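WARN retry 2 of 3 for item q-0093 after timeout on previous attempt; input resubmitted unchanged.
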Amino acid sequence: MCKTGDRGIISSTGPHFGEEPPLVGTNGSGTIFFAHCNLKCIYCLNYYLAHLGEGREVSDAELSRIMLRLQARGCHNINLVSPGYDSLAAIGLLDGVVDIYLPDMKYGDAAPAEEFSQAPDYPQANFALVKEMHRQVGDLVLDEDGVALRGLIVRHLVLPNGLAGTKRIMEFIAQEISKDTYVNIMDQYQPYYRAIG
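OK item q-0093 returned
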């Protein structure tokens, strides 16, 4: 569904100052925005990127050079921004490689996940993924300047009429992950579906 092949397609790269404060610090988060997505959210804020796949294909060598350039610019981290959700197998391969996970938790129930993102298995898959991510990196650890060193940060976008299942997601985090989990409650929902501009 996501249409990504053997090579990544990158939309943009650079220091980003709009991410969560523990990622931004003073020098920004070194973001690499990948195109395509395995979700088809009808409220997608990045339709041109996630649905249309706008960007350019890069080789593994070029991707590594981009990462090194971001590091040389003083970015606090290399932030691989992928808008979809992954398999447990893929996350398992990253054990010991990734220091900080920043997953979305979009839905607590299957019905809205299917209706609005064409992904009825999203809650079940997402809950298992976040649990595995936390197993790998634990709770968020900050340095003396408040910059993230390691751990889990969860993003949750609030949707109209309780469609995101916020209560169920927060209960899952508190009961199955950790009551010390850093959660960013996001409120920028906009009905932009297919709005390109």
